[in-house]
Amino acid sequence: MKKTIILSIFFCSFSVKAQDHLLNLLSQDKPIYISYLFKGTKVVNGQSVELPSKGVLQFTIQHRFGTLNSGFYNLYGLDNSQVRLGFDYGIKDFLAVGLGRSSTTKTIDANSKLRIKRQIKDGFPVTIVANFATYVKQWQYTDNQLDNFLFTNQLSFAQQLLIASKINRDLTLQISPTLIHYNLVETLDEPNDKYSLAIGGRYKITKRISVNAEYFHQLNDKINNNVLSFGFDIETGGHVFQLHLSNSSAMIMPAFITKNTGNWLDGDIYFGFNISRVFTLYK
Amino acid sequence: MNKLAIFLFLMLSVQVNAQIFTGKNGEINFFSETPIEDISAVNNKLSAVFDASTNDLVFQLNITDFKFPIALMQEHFNENYLESDLYPKSKFIGRVVNIMDEQATVWGDLTIHGITNSIKVVGSFIKSKNSVSINSQFIIKLKDYNIKIPKIVMYKIAEEIEVKVNIELIELK
Q: Where are the domains of chain A?
């Protein structure tokens, strides 16, 4: 009798194994892609490896105020605000285009982001995205009448490789070699091409809030200060709300990477926020 | 004792000769109806195996294969609710306990979000010579699987989700 029981237990365990064996028939070894490295398409000011999904239009309103050290007379910077309105659209899951305009420098920017490679669980370690942007400074009719006016002088360009790795479910790090090209520079000695390297990342403190940081280091002909920014991403359903502190008030790369005069230690700290809302245009 | 050994041996030999049916591109979708917004998603990569000798029936799917009409919902589904980075797969390990008029009753363990619950599901189960067609729908409760819904979400999520399964299994040669 005892033996029967032992045998029947043995048989039971065998039959469980049989079911596991059935599950093994199903195991497909396809790569598991790592997704959602950042909450937003930007780390703080610079681009992140995230793109709007296919058919999704993202509308972003960006605000930057004056410096926190500008005194109560300027309400610590709040009187002095500038805005960038931007649209980003996902043509494919791996390709997105964007259009925006900044108020202070009166610059229109257009960019495209192309995802080249994705991070794979226990496989390829990073996600790689290329970002290309063109910037056109607006002019007035009177500028146009000047003899030395050239449309091409109003242009600048940015090329970036964004390389990011989700270290764990909370921490993502990104490194972005960046080339900015100015068609027009201020002095003869100044090079048109400026190289910089950005290091950034995010850390999720809760499921819906992350802390972000970003630093652009200028590699050649540094005239102005390097930009260091911190941000909080707060996600609420269809919105991502981002709060920033930075030593630059600019929202486009040619301005904040090489033309930034603010210094954290002097209290030139600009507060700003982004609100983005997504709309699904195409399902 | 001898008889038992023979019986066991017989069982084993039956297992070896088992008629096994598998399917890979089954469809599973879920639907959640709320006053504000309906949420639905579909996964076309459901796989299953049925062993006709033991009546064992198993299902498996990848959470990330669920496609939503709204990309942001898909992100929240993966990141916040199902936590697909921690629990990439959902599976059902069970057994067909009764078949009558092509209606089958299936008992088994359903694992979602790392939590396993015993469930009983009734559905249509049409077995022919070399294929099995399974069609079923059932309700799962989010709190049974420790899926937490925050109070402040743009789209409200129902506590109970209706799941529909449809898969065709072909005999494994």
A: 30-280
Find the residue in B nearest to A52 (Cα). B71
* Cβ neighbours of B60 in A, within 8 Å: 23, 26
Q: Do A278 and B71 touch (CB under 8 A)?
A: yes
CB contacts under 8 A, B 25-84 vs A, are 47-49, 51, 54, 56, 58, 60, 62, 64, 69-72, 74-75, 78-80
Flag whether pLDDT at B147 surpasses 60: yes
pLDDT-wise least confident of A13-27, A144-158, A163-177, A223-237: A13-27
The predicted-structure confidence for B22-36, as pLDDT tens digits, reads as follows: 998 999 999 887 776
The DSSP symbol for B81 reads I
Contact between chains at B79 and A236 (C-beta distance less than 8 A) = no
Average pLDDT over residues A229-251: 88
Distance CA A130, CA A163 (A): 9
The whole-angstrom separation of Cα A160 and Cα A47 is: 9
CA distance A228 to B78: 32
Q: Report the complex ipTM.
A: 0.73
Rounded-to-integer distance, Cα B52 and Cα A21, Å: 14
Is the CB of B56 less than 8 angstroms away from the CB of A36?
no
Lowest-confidence region among A35-39, B151-155, B163-167? B151-155
Structural domains of chain B sorted by starting position, each given as residue range(s) with its CATH number in brackets? 25-171 (2.40.128.110)
**pLDDT digits over A130-180, tens only?**
999 999 998 888 887 888 888 888 999 999 999 999 999 899 999 999 999
Tell me whether A106 touches chain B (CB under 8 Å). no
Cα B118 to its chain centre, rounded Å, is 12
CATH, domain range A30-280 = 2.40.160.40
B49 contact residues in A (CB cutoff 8 A):
22-23, 25-26
Contacts of B75 in chain A (CB under 8 A): 35-36
The tokens describing A197, both together, are 């390297």
Distance in angstroms (rounded) separating the CA atoms of residues A273 and A244: 6
| Distance separating alpha carbons of residues A55 and B143, to the nearest angstrom | 33
Contact A278 B85 (CB under 8 A): no
